[in-house]
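TICKET: design request
STATUS: open
ATTACHED STRUCTURE:
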């Protein structure tokens, strides 16, 4: 994984499945595409006093450099779906 400047990023894929992220990572590394994976924590609704009612889930968002977007799309084609 490498650093892609914030303003040069384009969202490639989003998933809640960690296995898909591993597949994406391998495909992008194999193609030599630089990428960033952001993790966003999603929680269920909260009730008073901070009590949470639902399970916690993690959304994985994969960003690539906008100049590499088409290469990245073809690199992951058939990997996830």
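STATUS: resolved
RESOLUTION: sequence designed for all positions
ATTACHED SEQUENCE:
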């Amino acid at each position: 994984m490498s650093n892609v400047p914030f303003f040069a990023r384009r969202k490639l894929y989003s998933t809640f499945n960690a296995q898909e992220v591993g597949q994406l990572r391998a495909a992008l590394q194999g193609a030599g595409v630089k990428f960033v994976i952001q993790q966003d924590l999603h929680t269920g609704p909260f009730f008073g006093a901070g009590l949470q009612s639902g399970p916690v889930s993690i959304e994985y968002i994969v960003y690539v450099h906008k100049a590499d977007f088409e290469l990245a799309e073809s690199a992951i084609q058939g990997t996830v779906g």
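CLOSING REMARK: The two ends are 22 Å apart (CA to CA). The chain has two helices and five strands.
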